[in-house]
Every structure is written in C-alpha cells, then in structure tokens.
Design brief:
It is a single chain. This protein has a domain at 9-74 and 88-128: Immunoglobulin-like. Helices cover 17% and strands 26% of the residues. It is built from 3 helices and 7 strands, in the order αβββββββαα. It has helices spanning 9-20, 140-147, 150-160; strands at 35-40, 43-49, 58-63, 66-73, 92-99, 110-114, 117-123. Mean pLDDT is 76; it is low at 161-171. Belongs to the small heat shock protein (HSP20) family.
C-alpha cells in the first residue's frame, strides 16, 4: 500500500543514520525516524519510534498522497552546575515522508501516541476492497423489452419479428422441410 519510488532508499536511510550519529537533525536537514509498516485486516498501520518526544512536538500532515511526520526532541532542561558525562540520545528534528497509494483512505487516518511510539492507522478505501460482482441473466435489450409498456411491447415484437417465419423443431420428430412461399 505504500509506494516505493527509490530502490536505494534503505541505503540512504542507513547512510543518514551513520552520518547523524552524534549530530542532531535540523529543520533544513532532519534525521530519519525508524518505522514499521504492516496491514492489519482492512487497515494499514505505520508505527514510528519517537521516544522522549512530547506529543505537542509531533506534527502529522497529508497533502495529496504524501504523508509527512515531523517531530522535534529538545534537550532536557539542566541546571547551571551540571556537567554532561555522556550524551547518546539523539536530539533535534526528525522527519519521515511516505507516499500513500490511492487505495488508502487518508481522510480517515487516525494517529495515536503512547510510550514513545506514534501509530498511524489508515483504512483501506472501499473502492480498493475486494468485492463480488453480481452477474445478471438478461441483456440490456431483453430487460428493456421485458419492462416496456404493453402497447410499446407489442410494437417492438412486431418490429423485431418482421420477415421471420416461425419454425418449430420438436425433439424425437424427424425434421421436416418447409418451403417458403414468396
């Protein structure tokens, strides 16, 4: 259900993660966020890791078929007499863009955020779901003839059978030849 446009995207993400190790993402060059994508029944689910990010610092937008998730993790406030010994948690701006197919109903997208994981649920559009097609027994012309008014029906029958002789063949009876007089 997601459209992949770049076959080297995974390699690019890996290179970005290596380059971003120790470097915070900026608004002009945001860091990538890890994501899982899977289908659960009639819903497509995206789960993005954003540990330590406030709910108010997350923005989810959809423009046409482009889903964008942006978030910012700011450093924790520290007092004046604090000396940092180790800092491994990534800070800064994170962004992930995902191209959605037309088979997803982005209008009904739902977002939940709990325990540092943003879960987006996108229902599959009704037009994309498998459906059974009923097969009718009458052609359109036969249906029109069957529903026509009695006066119109008689006129149609007369018009359709002009020049055709009624020939009946019965089973188990020897075929008979019939001459047409003209």
């Amino acid at each position: 259900m997601l459209m992949r446009t770049d076959p080297f995207r995974e390699l690019d993400l890996f290179a970005q993660r290596l380059a971003a190790a120790g470097n915070p993402g900026t608004w002009s060059k945001p860091a990538a966020m890890p994501m899982d994508a899977y289908r659960e029944g009639d819903t497509y689910v995206l789960a993005l890791d954003l540990p330590g990010v406030d709910k108010e610092a997350i923005e989810v937008t959809v423009e046409r078929n482009m889903l964008t998730v942006s978030a910012e993790r700011r450093p924790l406030p520290r007092g004046e007499n604090v000396q940092t010994e180790l800092s491994e948690r990534p800070l800064g701006v994170f962004r992930r863009r995902v191209m959605l197919t037309d088979t997803l109903d982005a209008e009904r997208l739902r977002a939940d955020y709990e325990a540092g994981v943003l879960v987006l649920r996108i229902p599959i559009a009704e037009r994309a779901k498998p459906r059974r097609i009923a097969i009718g027994g009458m052609t359109e012309r036969a249906r029109d003839a069957a529903t026509a008014a009695p006066d119109e029906q008689g006129a149609r029958n007369a018009q359709d059978t002009r020049g055709v002789e009624d020939v009946r063949i019965e089973r188990d009876a020897p075929p008979q030849s019939k001459q047409l007089s003209g």
